[in-house]
Amino acid sequence: MINTRTPPRAADRMGGEAWGMLLVLCGAIFLEGIDVAMLNVALPSIRAELGLSTATLSGVVSAYVLGYGGFMLLGGRAADLYGRRRMFLTWLMVFLVFSGLGGFATEGWMLLLARFITGVAAAFMTPAGLSIITTSFEEGPQRTKALLFYAGTAAGGFSLGLVIGGLLTRIDWRWVFFTPVILSAVILSAALWLIKEPVKRVRVPRRLDLGGAVTVTVAMLLLAYGVVRLEHPGQGWGWTVASLAGGVAALAAFVAIERRSPAPLVRLGILRSGPLMRANTSALLYAGSFFGFQFLVTLYLQELRGWSTLETSLALLATGIDAILAPTLTPRLVAKFGNTRVIFGGLVLAVVAYALFLPLGMDWTYAAMFPSMILLGLGFALAYGPLTIVATDGIAEDEQGLAGGLLYTAFQFGAALGLSAVTAVNVAALGDGSPQAALGGFRAALVVPLVMAVLAAIVIASGRQRVSAKEARLASEEAIPAS
Fold first, then answer.
1. Per-residue pLDDT tens for 131-151?
2. Which of 54, 159, 279, 449 has its CA 20 to 30 A from that of 211?
3. Could you tell me the CA-to-CA distances from 48 to 43, 44, 45, 64, 309 in Å, in that order?
């Protein structure tokens, strides 16, 4: 553990060992982002070769969401209970194996299975990686720097994955699965050498809360499935309502079990943290707006405008500016204005970006789209990293994995909810299917990201108001002379 050898507060700069560990973990989160982005670009080519139905093709994406969202809370707590390094390395290996198996798929069910287990692997690997960072650097400038660098890498993985996926798909869509295998092998080799379990770590009882683990996983799986089904309202509401209701019932059972358990999987008291809950709520809403917007833009450019996969990827690349700004500009702004104000500024920029895109037309040039793209990239750079910091600051070391699991669950459910909402609105507003009607559908659906970003900004602003009120109260109390 870095802070057992060179205390972060003892030096302004991280040493070589710290940078080595951080780069390995950044490589893993980059891998997760690039894996998702490349697959999204390759879906039409996969359908063409394997002859997949629309439902199966949608299931390839949904399977990953189910695995990721369903097991994220369990994965985060497993890192606390059984060792962060062990969980990270084990599930990175699983990620490597099943990503490769996806590349050899000849039937739809093979892809579905591979993507589901890859999602489960990411659900265990990602919070373990984040908690290694938050327990290796004490709260302060070094942890802030590390987390913002980590967040920038994650964002860059998704942005660059769109372009790399377009290039690889031109060769063969199977390389979209084989490339993560190569990257995983390199990261795994480096991780075995550079990542070490903390020398002094808080001992957490390894007694598994089996009832809590089962009920929370069932709840997350059912809720994720219900949210995914919202994309297809025409398929009937029976299974959708049943899934959501079952998820809520399982979640209620989980809460009841955790209240009575002597060693709960999730200490419910952690949910009383105002900053953590505001950060997770804003993360859910912002992720929904961001991924919903990108999905709509992709459909608009390819299906309505006839742009190629590569042209679409390059058009979205401007949002990748966050990979440069997150580790460079954002730390300076956080140091000057604080996390809450920087997050709020990023969300306001996102609101402006979505609003500028609302009047899109059939003959829009890229110059008309560019302001939205660049503002969205800047907004993501300002909001994503500080949200990660707020969601993990002040959390005990033995619950850092859990805090990471909560945050990534919020991001994953937010992304699924945003995609489902924009798809449902777009389909409902299609009209007679003419190009003009399709354009109207896109315009109607673009309201969804705008509303979600506005709500995210309101949630963050409410936190800032509470902090300001508390500061004012303390100041007034200090001004009253003691009697």
1. 999 888 877 788 888 888 888
2. 279
3. 9, 6, 5, 21, 14
